[in-house]
Amino acid sequence: MRQDLLEHSKQADGEYARKLVDFAEGNGGNRLRLKIAYAHLVECMGNTHQHASARPGEQTWWASVFRDSRRKCDCFTFVDMGVGIFNSVELSLRLRIYSFTGFRHQILKRLLEGKIPSSTGKPYRGRGLPWIYRSCIDQKVKRLVIVTNNVFGDAERDDFRALEHDINGVILYWEVPHECS
Amino acid sequence: MNVAEKTLNLNVALEFSKTPGPRFQTEGKFSGEEFREGILRKRLDEALKEGSVLHIDLDGGYGYATSFLEEAFGGLAREYESDQILKTLSFKSDEEPYLIEDIRGYIRKARSG
Fold this sequence. Notes:
heterodimer; A: alpha+beta; Heat Shock Protein 90; seven-stranded antiparallel beta sheet; B: alpha/beta; three-stranded parallel beta sheet; 5 helices; globular
């Protein structure tokens, strides 16, 4: 039985998310629990389209699902190789200074907690990443990990730290258990 | 919801898409903007004209990105009064019950964030 599926595009299209979720459901995943994964995938695709490059829609995203039959969960990974969160979010001067003095990991956590306004300047925007974070805190998904630029964050373990090397773009990883734990 | 009121229905999965997309039409298909512009606003206008409740069924699809919901319902509340929308819309979401309070929050905070 095939264990994984990979999709990619530059568009934010629910059809790609549907394929990944259908694959997970066909391998034992719980349809209702997978609705969160669908929502996260589309949210991430939209973020890539809007924020990963200077002009919208230039960057490709890749998304995969891996069936971990031993741990009885579906593992989702979303990747884009755009500018990364720290080059796309318009940080306040104070936070920008923090950013250059090595506190980017704290800024990432504050972003995920919804404490940093959207780069669009519109107060009702910028809720996507906080919602993804909250889904992990609320245990709708497990083991949410985000890597962007030179920062690593593991939401479940509350482990946020700086990395030695910089990467281009954003990597998000989360797991959806087949059954409630 | 007052049971004596007339009710109009909108089933998102049947009348729009089972695979709702991103916030804006420029980002991809079946966006929140497309839903609001193509269906939701017309139904809301109809409900307001008749003094009806518009009952929106969110079940049956694959799921909803936050941006989709914010743009559809928060976007509506940036055109109309939030209180008016909250009184006119009711929701069913047996599959993801938490969405209802999320949407009400998007409507309440549509201008202020």
